[in-house]
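--- STAGE predict ---
source: upstream dedup step, 1 unique chain passed
mode: sequence only
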Amino acid sequence: MLKRNFKKVFFLSFFLWGFFAMIEEVSAATYYIDATSGSDLNSGITEDEAWQTIDKVNNSTFNSGDNILFKRGETWREQLIIPSSGSEGNPITFGAYGDGNAPKISKSDYYNNWWKISPFEKNGGFEIFTESNPNDDFISWAEYSGGSSYAKASSTEVMSGKYSLKLYTDGVNQPRVQRSNINPIVCNEQYYLEFYAKRESGQDTRVQLRTFGLLGGQYYYLQSDGSWGGSSNLFTISSSEWTKYSITFNYNPPNCENGALNIYLYGNAIGEEGVVYYDDFYFVRGSNEGSVHTWRGYRNDVYESFGAKTDLRSEKHYKYDNLVPFDDLENNYFYWNAIGGANTFYLRNDSGNPGNILVGARPYGILIDNSSNIVVENFLIADPGGRPDNNEYRDLGIKISGDSENILVRNIEIVDVTNVGINAENTTSNITYDNLSVHNCGSTGIYMKSQSGFILNSKSYNNGKLVTDAGDMGGIGSYQGGNIIIQGNEVYNNGRSSIDSDSEISVVGNTDHVTIKGNHVHDCLQGCIQIAEGGNGSIISNNIIDNFGSSTYQGPSTGKFGGIRIGGGAGGATDVEIKNNIIANGQRDSNSSHAGVVIANYDNQRMILKNNIFINNNSRDIYAHTDSNTTDNDFNNNIFYKADYTNNWYWKGVSYSSQEDWKINSLFDSRSLITNPLFSSNSPSQPPEFQLGYLSPAIDSGADVGLTADYAGNPIYGTPDIGAYEYQPPHVMGSDKINIEGGARIYNDGKFRDLSEIYNLGANLTITPENNFSNYEEDEIRPDFMDVTDIIWTAEKKEWTETANNISSTFHRVGDSTPNVYYYVKIDNELKNITGENCKDNICKADNSGNLNFTYVGSYSTHTFEITPREGEIVTKLTDADLKIDNKKETLGNDIKFYLEKDKAKLKGDNPEIAGGKVKIYKNDKFYEEISVDSNGRWFKTISFGHNHNYKIKIKFYDEFNTLRDIKEYNVKVDTKDPIFKNEVYNQKNSSHQVTRNERIAFQASDKETKIDYYKVKILDGNGHIIRKWKKQYEDFYIIPDKIKEEAQTVIVRAYDRAGNYREVNFGVK
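--- STAGE serialize ---
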């Protein structure tokens, strides 16, 4: 059977069973039945004390939770009738124990008492010669006897079968039996006569064959050489052992007349008492026994009809029927003559006595009637059975009837029964079939009329194939039931091509909706799926429908041979949803009504037809009958493709071959496609031809129709696909690389698929939601995804674009980088929104394996990520205020020069951006020293210089990741000489000069090394107190302000060069 892994549809049935939902702890017993070694006198509670018969089981009472187990490898020719009910949560289980084949319940008994009868020519064909009573066909012969002589059936001496013809001679009167005026026997035709006889006692006897009546004034007798002449014995019976007598002759006596022939079988010659027996009389047109032999059987059971087959495990089985022309039956076909209600059956077997044949004896294998909370599992139900009266639905493998409810039938094979394999009547409820294999039965394999139930994970095939089969002859059927789920089954090759058979799955007259989901329905001689006369609100989804309508039957109703037919018989079905199916290889002519989907001439309003793939149908893809009611139907997001045929739709009287014409006139399929769905050619499971390839246009082209899983039980990823299979992303984020040329779509369970043809799976890129990927149930939709496109992947640059909704921060691992090297990570060409353990300010260090690990913190729409090596670049400028010299409060400004008044200088920094990093100092382009930065970002270094020289100082600042953050360069002038005033008198040490209060005081100075930078002026009163603090100025003169003129007694002036050297002069005020 097709493995579709319906992710345990079986558990669905358990979940819905109230009586299994909470198993109570009760005291339960286990009973064992062994057909070979058991005994009904045993206790039954251990394997060594096993019972023997099903009859013992049928007449016992069991309690909730009990297990009744039949030994594997054993066969019972009995009928199991469930005798007790379980309780909610504690079913009674009938199952198997031990090793080997499943225990077998056969509906047939062996029969070997056969005798041969003769087919006679009639109306151009052969029919079986029948009698009302079973006496080996001699009862209708005329009997002639006298005295105590007689002719009667005997069961003590037989050649075959149960009876022979016994003729007793009393010594005075010779008895005989006579078959007269045999019709239709034709002049000048050849015939063959055969029988067996033995003389038990008395005189020899004779057998004569004579014309009936006078021909030309006399009787003619068949001579032993085959000629016709005077009175003569054809055979003389003298042996005391059963002996075969036979002759081939032409019926051509003189004055021949059609039908004028008598056959005489005599008793012993008179003179003494004697007994002679005759058996297996056979008379047929032809030169020998010929190619057709019919054997007759008989039984005194209560059942009036029987089936038979020639081998326990034969693929061919033989069934009862009303008398049919013999030529219509193949060798070993079995059938029953209903004339007079006789317990008589017939078997054609051309190779001799059939020997042991299974003949139907019981109407059911298992009967569950008015029972509840029952599990039946692990059996083989086989062989034909009886149908007692009135064409009732009997002769089933398993019958569930009455008010039965909460019944689970699972892991069972049903084969060769002469009617429906299994059926639950419409008075039952909550019935589950799981993992059944039903085949070679006489009508529909699996039937359910229950008012709620499941048909799961089962196979129904090769049913209704024989000429004697009757009924619906489909695969799975439901009539007048409702609320039934038909899921995960394989159904094929049921019914016969030349007569009206049912669809493979047929739902008719149902009172409630039916779900037909995830089935593989193929090789449908007629139709594949139909819903008619009810079943409103039904769903047909995720089915693979392949190869339908090859039947040769003439005159089917509209759409009978279609892939899916809605409406038929006497009514339609409203609110049906047909979605995500494959409908392929329809065989009917493109001008017929038998299309991929047929809307028959009934009320079929509000139908949904979406996400289906119609492929390579010779038939039309859609057919809507002129009189169908299609109000508010909605067809869209389908794919139509015909590799070998012309597209063809039919809508209420008009055919369309153009999709545009179809769209305009039907008002449907505006978003549908005519394109090759590009199925996968190397899918790992069956049937591979309908799984989507990674470039299929069906991917993400469907509509949301409420499904959560596909045909195989796989989840829906993002936007639903078209077809029965949802494309499953084959790659796993973190394990597989991304296609560089085409990019990928990443789903929020961590799997991803390619967005174009695969040329290079080289991008070692992992993208994970901040809180990791989501965990889902197996059939839960994966709604969210991210597209990764426009990928550049080189050693110098890695770049890609991410597009997503409903996603926030994401973790990235970027491989193929140089180990332990720093990289810049830009988002939309900016250094922003990147964090990570080895990242700072959008600079990340690759680990020992060459992976960059960082988190993007921010929202999503579309963002471009760029990663480049950081070598040779300054990423950010450090704040200048953080660099100081010689403990001065002032910081080094933006000037690229600074001046020193001595040959040493102390540089210090304080900036958290480089905490834990380092500073490298270069003097005159030569490396001078490397200084570590503490954890607070502080550092210092004293640099030595020579006297009165110029120097070039370069400082490189690195953060803790060894990332170069800034470079500062300075030209240093070392100047240890003080400036001089142009008035030489002022240059004398401790010089003091007199000025008047209103005088402009001039003190121009100069410096040969670094030039005068500025002046400072301070004023003291007569007591030496400061009345004006040092004031910096650039003018080389000073005028005492009026408000302090009277107090000012001393003016002190300093001239500073750029190195900070100064010279001071004092002026006394008078």
